[in-house]
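Format notes (please read before filing issues)

Several people have asked whether sequences and structure tokens are stored in separate files. They are not. Every record keeps both together, in the order shown below: the sequence lines, then the token lines. Line labels are part of the format and must not be stripped during preprocessing.
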Amino acid sequence: MGYIDRKTEKAASVSRRLRSAAQTVAEGLFALAFLLVLQEVPAGAEGFAIYSQGARGAALNGTVLARKPDSGVLAHNPALLASLEGSSVSVGMTLIATEGGINWERAGRRGSTSSNRGYFYIPHAYFNLRLDDRWVLGIGEFSRFGLGNEYPPDWAGRFNVYRVELATSSLNASLAYRATDRLSVAAGLELMYASMSLRNRIPFPVPNAGVGEVDVSVDKAHDLAAGFSLAGHYQLSPRWAFGVHYRSRVRVKAKGRVSFAYVGPDDPFLKGAYDAVFRDGPVHGVITMPESLAAGVAFSPNAKLSIEADVVWTRWSRFKSLDLDLPGGLPKSVNPKKWKDNLRAAVGIEYSALDWLDLRAGYSYTQSPMTAGHADYTVPTDDRHTYSFGIGINAGRWTVDLAYELIDCIGRKYAASPLETGGNGALRSRGASIRGHEGTFTLTYRF
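Then the structure lines:
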């Protein structure tokens, strides 16, 4: 028995080392890809979902669930891979510029604070390989979630948040099958690398001494998690087609570090109390990237023109709270969110003006999932309108797609939520002039 136990223990040890090595390699590859991934998406996502994963899809406002496919349909409806001719490879980038701010009131004072304007980027890449007449394999890298906002560290709403970042990079592999001349289906696996940073300040009152502040910084809490997708496409007639795509939730168990810094009066009693309470150390929390269900109908009155309307439902009600376990015996940081499920409706039109030129335009309306009673400054917007247009240039085996999107966000209204009464530190305020400008290009080669 001892010999068997030793063999079993050795086998288990080898298995653990292999799993550890595989995870290390996987995380290294994702970290390498993540260096190119968007770090902040202040106005680019309601909730924090991203709907643009390629230039053609961006120009059509994501309405690529049912119409004629392109190389990037892996992100929108992988069942359409079965309708692609031959194999292809694509690479591209989305560039983002943002603007906006918060108008606020506090203790009888009024002010306006602008978020730091920035320029960001999201890469995407796709490889589609036709295996035979019915089977196609698609592999792609893109981002489905991103969030970011940054204000001055001493702004009036700093007790809620003054900086937040959530960035993701997803590696997707899907296998599409043409079951009949009209029906195609697909199933896929998603590996998502996610990283989160969060910064705010908290008041630090000490009896008989005064009130200081503590700067709290959670940096690069990250994790590698998995999900799956299912998709279908049905050609109802030569003119009408229907597509559907389901993505599962991805549960991210992020681990990182938290650091504290005393900010406030130069008072030895306050500093001494701070030193006795706060210790830097590890931090971890769980955030669920929600599942979504998208459906679309496309109408093609002729070979040159197609119109598609889509609806996307996202189960944001899974985002109930952002809780963090802190080091040194500090109580858990509990941040209720209680978001609600939301809908996004979009329409897009594509016209082949010439053999080498395609014209595209789209519009979408997206509901905000944030509830009024738990609104915070991580996403300072309400519902949003997105307007898009773009072109496709075809040159033999090569295609260049270009797109522009204007994201016009309705400024969110906030009621005062003081910390003293159990609130989240938000002020009586409103988001102002929050817009995003996105430019996307994709280069495709078919072989």
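For reference, the curators noted about this record: Confidence is low (pLDDT under 50) at residues 1-46. The chain has two domains: 1-35, 40-446.
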